[in-house]
Specification:
Layout lengths: L1 E8 L3 H12 L4 E5 L5 H4 L3 H20 L12 H28 L6 E5 L1 E6 L2 E5 L5 E11 L3 E3 L12 E2 L13 E5 L3 H12 L4 E5 L11 H13 L3 E3 L2 E9 L2 E8 L4 E6 L1 E4 L3 E3 L6 H4 L3 E2 L2 E2 L11 E3 L10 H16 L13 E3 L5 E5 L2 H6 L4 E7 L4 H5 L6 E7 L6 E7 L8 H8 L5 H5 L9 H10 L14 E7 L2 E4 L3
Parallel strand pairs: 1-2, 1-6, 2-3, 6-19, 8-15, 9-10, 9-15, 10-11
Antiparallel strand pairs: 4-5, 5-6, 7-16, 12-13, 13-14, 17-18, 20-21, 21-24, 22-23, 22-25, 23-24, 25-26
Helix pairs in contact: 1-8, 3-4, 3-5
Length: 494
């Protein structure tokens, strides 16, 4: 039986990151993957959906500027877009696989071995792999990291067939733009696909939202921008609605809603996308048989370590935050716990996020809703994109930068949200300040590149310190400084 220092089950973002961190320690690593290298983060998740978003954004820009350049509406070819997405996915998979092949050649394969098949733990130190041809082989490992990811949640009362009614995994099975599409679920994934399809100007999109607003975890000023842009693109948002039924009728989707007012309505569309969360992939791994503790949300872990000392779990298979960057962080951290000593404890407070909507939203730390839910008083600065030269030069000033700091003289950073073009380029310096529990003075004096969106962060900091370029007394609709205490905010003119 071949023996390894570490066996990683799952070659998605978290598993791959764990394996590569183990290489840094000079360990002999086995990676087992039953499906596709890169996991859902590449094939049906972050990379593929964000490629769709980029392509749809290009189409939308042509529509927006067609009069300016005397253009007709673009005749968008669905298969051409789909091929581009598939090419992006293949490019990433090829890179990951080529990298593993090259590593395997080193030291006669004593660094990384990659096998494809179904893995099942038969003990804490042994894993049995069933290959595609039905053959089996057992491997031994001193440590095991479980990184098998997640899949879209199914609803038993909805006939998800993968063609007419599908989950986010079924986008790749579409053969053309649907004439109409209903999306069940107004969270991040549902809103991202609503943005994609409405931006392509080929599909009438309906979005079912059980609450008053989409993205219920975000601040109202952010949500209002996103909803306005959706509706400007012809998207129908079913607010305060509960789905009574969804079924396939004559090859189309019929669904019935009941609103909070008691009104009921029936709608007919061509396709439906069900986006109601994800569930961890831990079935068939033999976890319960060997004593790994589970709950309804996934594997129970203590800083990535499971109830069995030498078995760790990272990424979506746990109940932590289901993001690619978080999975990679956990994978690296688990290996550092196993073979070394982590430089710092695993921390989720400075995790940067991006929502690929119209416009994009980048965030780190607390937003207003979260700060108020925790009973935290804070100071807040908001700078409109109209005050940022880079946004003006791009001819797209919709958006703002919002910075929250502690309500004291230290003004330590609590969180930030950036809504607008290039939002994701403006987030990392603030994430670093949060991780080191820093204040804002460093950002005020840091010379930012000009013109750039991060200059909006600098102006927020200067506003909080009473030395902004633009004064809120003169531009109250573009420069806002508030102090929020006990859930009540008051304007401050600096």
């Amino acid at each position: 039986m071949k023996r390894f220092d570490l066996c990683v089950i799952g070659a998605g973002p978290s598993g791959y990151a764990a394996a590569m961190r183990a290489v840094d320690y000079g360990k002999k690593v086995l990676i087992i993957e039953r499906d596709s290298i890169g996991g859902a983060g590449v094939t049906n998740g972050a990379l593929s959906s964000k490629t769709w978003w980029e392509l749809s954004r290009n189409v939308d820009l042509v529509h927006k500027n067609k009069k300016k350049y005397n253009l007709n509406s673009p005749d968008v070819n669905f298969q051409a877009l789909k091929d581009e997405v598939n090419n992006a996915v293949k490019e990433r998979k090829d890179l990951l696989f080529h990298h593993l092949e090259e590593l395997h050649k080193l030291k006669n394969g004593f660094i990384v071995t990659y096998v494809k098949g179904d893995a099942k733990l038969t003990s804490a130190n042994e894993v049995q792999v069933t290959f595609i041809d039905g053959s089996e082989e057992k491997f031994a490992a001193d440590y095991v990291i479980l990184a098998t990811g997640s899949r879209p949640r199914m609803l038993p009362h909805i006939p998800i067939d993968g063609k007419i009614i599908f989950t986010s995994d079924g986008i790749s099975e579409l053969e053309d733009f649907p004439k109409s599409l209903v999306i069940l679920g107004a969270g991040v994934i549902g809103c991202e696909f609503a943005t994609i399809f409405s931006s392509l100007h080929k599909t009438k999109v309906h979005l079912i939202d059980k609450g008053e607003h989409i993205l219920p975890f975000e601040d109202a000023d952010i949500v209002s921008i996103i909803e306005k842009n959706m509706e400007d693109h012809g998207l129908l948002i079913h607010r305060n609605s509960r789905m009574i039924r969804m079924e396939i009728v004559d090859g189309e989707v019929e669904y019935e809603l009941e609103y909070s007012s008691g009104l009921k309505e029936v709608f007919r569309v061509e396709k439906a996308l069900v986006s109601v969360g994800r569930v961890p992939n831990y079935e068939g791994l033999g976890l319960e048989e060997i004593g790994v503790k589970l709950d309804a949300r996934g594997i129970i872990d203590n800083d990535t370590q499971t109830s069995i000392e030498n078995i760790y779990a990272v990424g979506d298979i746990t109940a932590d935050i289901a993001l690619v960057n978080v999975g990679e962080l956990e994978g690296r951290y688990a290996v550092e716990r196993i073979f070394g000593t982590p430089a710092r404890k695993l921390n989720y407070e400075n995790i940067s996020t991006i929502m690929f909507l119209k416009p994009e939203i980048a965030g780190v730390g607390l937003n207003q809703k979260q700060a108020e839910a925790k009973g935290i008083d804070y100071k807040m600065a908001i700078v409109d994109y109209g005050c940022i030269p880079r946004a003006v030069s791009k001819r797209d000033t919709q958006g703002f930068v919002k910075l929250l700091v502690t309500n004291d003289d230290d003004m330590k950073v609590l969180g930030m949200r950036v809504v607008g073009n290039h939002a994701s380029s403006a987030i990392q310096a603030v994430a670093l300040l949060i991780s080191v529990n820093g204040g804002i003075e460093e950002l005020a004096e840091c010379v930012h590149p000009h013109p750039s969106i991060p200059e909006g962060i600098q102006e927020c900091v200067r506003l909080l310190m009473g030395k902004s370029t633009f004064k809120p007394r003169a531009l109250p609709d573009k420069m806002i400084y508030k102090i929020c205490e006990k859930g009540t905010c008051r304007n401050v003119f600096a």
